[in-house]
Specification:
Strand 3 and strand 4 form a beta hairpin. Helices cover 0% and strands 74% of the residues. The model has no long low-confidence stretch (mean pLDDT 93). The chain is elongated and about 40 Å long. With 72 residues, the chain is mainly beta.
């Protein structure tokens, strides 16, 4: 993974990355370009979401991710 993030405000980050996954069992190489946002609701709680577009025939066309973080 190679990524870049940029602060959008005190509680939000814009994130871009390139992901490469090698699935040895299926003999596939997956390549994705992703963009997403991470937003802090409170100092201990954050939500995130992103969309990735596949590059190449082994890659999925689209991958959508959602995240929830709670820090103890």
């Amino acid at each position: 993974v190679v990524g870049y993030s940029r602060r959008l405000g005190p509680d939000a980050l814009l994130i871009f990355d390139y992901v490469r996954e090698a699935r040895q069992q299926q003999g596939q190489d997956i390549n994705l370009l992703e963009a997403g946002i991470r937003y802090s609701l409170t100092p201990n709680v954050a939500l995130s979401g992103g969309v990735g577009l596949g590059i190449g025939e082994d890659s999925p066309d689209v991958r959508v991710t959602f995240g929830f973080q709670y820090s103890l």
